[in-house]
Design goal:
The two termini are 25 Å apart. Helices cover 46% and strands 27% of the residues. By secondary structure, the protein is α+β, with helices and mostly antiparallel strands. The strands form 2 sheets. It has a 3-stranded antiparallel β-sheet with strand order 1-2-5. The protein has a two-stranded antiparallel sheet with strand order 3-4. Strand 1 and strand 2 form a beta hairpin. Helix 1 packs across helix 2. The mean pLDDT is 92. It has 2 domains: 39 residues; 58 residues, HU Protein, Chain A. It is built from 3 helices and 5 strands.
Amino acid sequence: MTRSDLVTRLADRFAQLTQRDTEFAVRTMLDAMTDALARGHRIEIRGFGSFAVNRRPPRIGRNPRSGEQVTIPEKLVPHFKPGKALREAVDGRSAGARE
């Protein structure tokens, strides 16, 4: 599902909201989440999951063309951990689809 799919689905589900209002709400929520993660905060949405920032330490890698060693600097990357309810919902749906 893309962001525009989410906006369309929410606008269809909540008739009192216009497409523009729904798009603004989704954009505002995602911007707030991005800002919180950029500041190093953790985000927890009960029943869905949590977002955190993980640190990848610096390491030595190789340039695939020349084989030369290069230093890869430390990175901070977003990480999502699904909540129990989400894991069970996904597992229940996929188990039913396999049978």
